[in-house]
Design brief:
Enolase-like, domain 1; about 475 residues; 21 strands; binds flavin-adenine dinucleotide; 5-stranded parallel beta sheet; FAD/NAD(P)-binding domain
Length: about 475
């Protein structure tokens, strides 16, 4: 192995591997160091996203959704099944197979693009030197022209709920239950808590979600948050807001969880407790004392808009820096930094980072919520279209939710799009493109959408900004 590189990336999650691949594509001699070991104990590129995050959670969300569909909704469309069963070990095994395939895929991409993939621990020293301690073999020092830090994040913990990996688990443990627990507690009604609660709820667990805040999904548009809370409760998720977890006691029968709410002290007893109270940046052991990188008081690496740290030629991207902890946000940052190192001038448009909650129906949004626009004092107009009025949603027996388009009243520019409904994650991609190109609601209204598609709901919501929706009666009638 050479010990001189143009670029050394520490961390091979979606931020780091994208940075490494793009650097190599641009002709830079690039190494990417990652220390993760997969479930099989072998080195595993891909970071949280591939190993314990986006991909395994979606594998279980998709499997559990199909199970519930077969069990509860097939009969509605004239399909009778004698019995529907669950084979949890098989479900987990398939999830693991998807994950290991994707991990191999990253190794293949490194090879195909000429990235030197190094499995072991990376540590930033002074003067852009990086110490590499392989899982096997001797420690070496490599010299880098540029270093990209992409160490990611780990689950946050709170004192009342120490993770024991058995009764009390974090999001990683919740992806590997070997049977369906009778009673599951989830702490935190954030994105991860709702997704994992949905998985086990669909498979048959009684799920109680305890959330300290009084407000459900405060970052989501209020209308969408309100409607989705009702839907999730109807699905059987027992979501208790204003419930601050204060303690746990583990015994043979399960976990007794204590919490306080407006009525006082409460307890529940569950078989498994999933702690999903957020994530924190992971920089343990990453820096030698003289590496000179500044962190903020929450442990995030301090960077500017272009992901540059306070040290020359050292960048940081992904979950370990400010902004939403989302795989695609990190990927865009990684690519941007690689291109800047190569002399190009791209920027990440943080105003159009899409967010998704992969429940069913899904929640997806981009841009500002109505409450944010209102608070800013801008004048705005809202267009909405319910999936109940969509022919495709009716045909698919999947009609809950709506699309909401918020446009600036003066310019008609779209400032936010919020979707609760089937395939909201795919629909919001169209909204991102529209906003990237500075589209107006009228531009979208003049765009032709294939019929019958769920995306037509987005078209109709854009048309309804001006009171021109065709497939519903417009509240505001304008010529
Ligand atoms: P990570 O993916 O965390 O990767 C960092 C890598 O760096 C790790 O492999 C780590 O071991 C390695 N590393 C750290 N320090 C060192 C060191 N010193 N030496 C060597 N290696 C090191 N996001 C979405 O956008 N969509 C989703 O649907 C989604 N679902 C999620 C579901 C769950 C259950 C969880 C937990 C997360 C989910 N996320 C999702 C978040 C997403 O996984 C993260 O935002 C993303 O993985 C962050 O990418 P990253 O590259 O910054 O860091
Ligand atoms: P997120 O940061 O989106 O993953 O969501 C984590 C959620 O956990 C937040 O909504 C927090 O309010 C919630 N949370 C954190 N600590 C507690 C606690 N002790 N009891 C209940 N909810 C909590």
């Amino acid at each position: 192995m050479s010990d001189n590189f143009d670029v050394v990336v520490i961390g091979a999650g979606p931020a780091g591997y994208a940075a490494a691949i793009r650097s190599a594509q641009l002709g830079l001699n690039t190494a990417c160091i990652d220390k993760s070991l997969g479930k099989d104990g072998k080195p595993a590129f891909g970071g949280t996203c591939l190993n314990w995050g986006c991909i395994p959670s979606k594998a279980l969300l998709d499997a559990s959704h199909k199970y519930l569909d077969a069990k509860e909704h097939f009969a509605e469309i004239g399909i009778t099944v004698k019995s529907v069963g669950i084979d949890v070990p098989k479900m987990i095994e398939r999830k693991d197979k998807v994950v290991s395939g994707m991990i191999k895929g990253i190794a293949g991409l490194f090879k195909g693009n000429g990235v030197t993939g190094l499995t072991g621990v990376g540590r930033l020293l002074a003067n852009r030197q990086v110490e590499f301690t392989p899982h096997e073999g001797d420690r070496t020092i490599v010299q880098a022209e540029h270093v990209i830090l992409a160490p990611g994040s780990v689950p946050a913990e709170i004192p009342p709920t120490p993770i024991d990996g058995d009764r009390i688990v974090d999001s990683t443990g919740a992806l590997d239950f070997t049977e369906v627990p009778k009673r599951v507690g989830v702490i935190g009604a954030g994105v991860i808590g709702l997704e994992l609660g949905s998985v086990w709820g669909r498979l048959g667990s009684e799920v109680v979600v305890l959330e300290a805040l009084e407000e459900f999904l405060p970052m989501v548009d209020e209308r969408i948050a309100r409607d989705s809370l009702k839907i999730f409760k109807d699905q059987g998720l027992d979501i208790r807001l204003g419930a601050l977890v204060t303690g746990t006691e583990v015994n043979k029968k399960g976990v007794t969880v204590s919490y306080t709410d407006s009525e006082g002290e409460q307890t529940i007893v569950v078989d498994k407790l999933i702690v999903a109270v957020g994530r924190k940046p992971y920089t343990e052991g990453l820096f030698a004392p003289d590496s000179g990188i500044d962190l903020d008081d929450q442990g995030f690496v301090i960077v500017d808009d272009l992901c540059a740290t306070n040290a020359a030629n050292i960048y940081a991207v992904g979950d370990a820096v400010r902004g939403p902890m989302l795989a695609h946000k990190g990927t865009e940052e990684g690519v941007m930094v690689a291109e800047r190192i190569a002399g190009f001038k791209p920027m990440v448009n943080y105003a159009t980072v899409p967010s998704v909650v992969y429940t069913h129906p899904e929640i997806a949004w981009v841009g500002k919520t109505e409450q944010e626009v209102k608070a800013s004092g801008e004048s705005y107009t809202v267009g909405q279209f319910p999936f109940a009025a969509s022919g495709r949603a009716q045909a698919a027996n999947d009609t809950q939710g709506l699309v909401k388009v918020i446009a600036d009243t003066q310019t008609d520019r779209i400032v936010g799009v919020h979707v609760l409904g089937p395939q909201a994650s795919e629909i919001v991609a169209q909204a991102v493109i529209a906003m990237e190109f500075d589209a107006s609601a009228e531009d979208l209204g003049l765009t032709m959408f294939a019929h019958p598609t769920l995306s037509e709901a987005f078209h109709e919501a854009a048309l309804s900004v001006a009171g021109h929706a065709i497939h519903m009666v417009n509240r505001k009638k304008r010529s």
